[in-house]
Amino acid sequence: MNSLCDIQKAIGYEFKDARLLESALTHSSYVNEHAATGNERIEFLGDCVLNFIVGERLFSDDRTASEGKLSSRRAALVSRAPLARIVDELGLLNVLKVGAGVNKSAFSVKARSDIFEAVLGAVYLDGGLDACRGVLDSVFFGAVMPERDYKSELQEYAAKHNLSVTYETRQADGGFESDVRVGDSMYSGRGSTKHGSQISAAKAAVSAFVEKR
């Protein structure tokens, strides 16, 4: 992905003011060399929004969970590793503006996770909480907390029946498509991230290959 338009397609949200997205994808090292607005303040806001919406979802999904359980679960979901993985899969680093000599491929997990929070902060400023909920539904929740662990479920079924399972994933129309081959059968899925598209393909396989037998 090489443009702001690609990013908007990938996250499932079209900005009214694309300058907010541009700021979210501008690193402090670039600001030091150019007259530009960086993403640090927007990243702070996005972190607040992410924690609120994830907490809201967990609170709604499990009415009996204690405060401690909800806090622990939220901390795991919004940790740096899953956010960094989504940043990588969405190709956000490809369009991040950095200063001369800065190696984006060497960005730490934290530095990459900050980019996701900055983009979410920009979405909030442009469209509010509902827009952020839509983006998280599109690229976040399916990747970090699928309704069922379809990939593991499919793998267990295949192992039990001595079948091989292989995935092939490719970029397509601002997102990703995956095919999963289970023995001699093939199933397909789509998603905004590689991980999400593989979950979608695994879900199709489980529905057709497991639940109907």
Describe the protein.
There is one protein chain. The chain has 213 residues and is mainly alpha-helical. Helix content is 61%, strand content 11%. Strands 1-2-3 form a three-stranded antiparallel β-sheet. Strand 1 and strand 2 form a beta hairpin. Helix 10 packs across helix 11. The N and C termini lie far apart (40 Å). 38% of the residues are buried. The mean pLDDT is 89.
Task: List the keywords.
213 residues; mainly alpha; 11 helices; 61% helix
Profile the largest sheet.
Answer: 3 strands, antiparallel
- Tell me the number of strands: 3
> What is the chain-wise order of helices and strands?
HHHHHHHHHHEEEH
**Structural category:** mainly alpha
User: In one word, what is the shape?
Assistant: globular
Q: Note the gap between the termini.
A: 40 Å
Strand content: 5-15%
Summed over residues and divided by their number, the pLDDT gives a mean of: 89
Q: Approximately how much helix is present in the residues?
A: 55-70%
Helical segment tally? 11
Topology of helices and strands:
Layout lengths: L3 H8 L6 H7 L3 H4 L8 H22 L5 H11 L2 H11 L1 H4 L13 H31 L1 H4 L5 H11 L4 E8 L2 E8 L2 E7 L2 H17 L3
Antiparallel strand pairs: 1-2, 2-3
Helix pairs in contact: 2-8, 4-5, 4-8, 6-8, 10-11
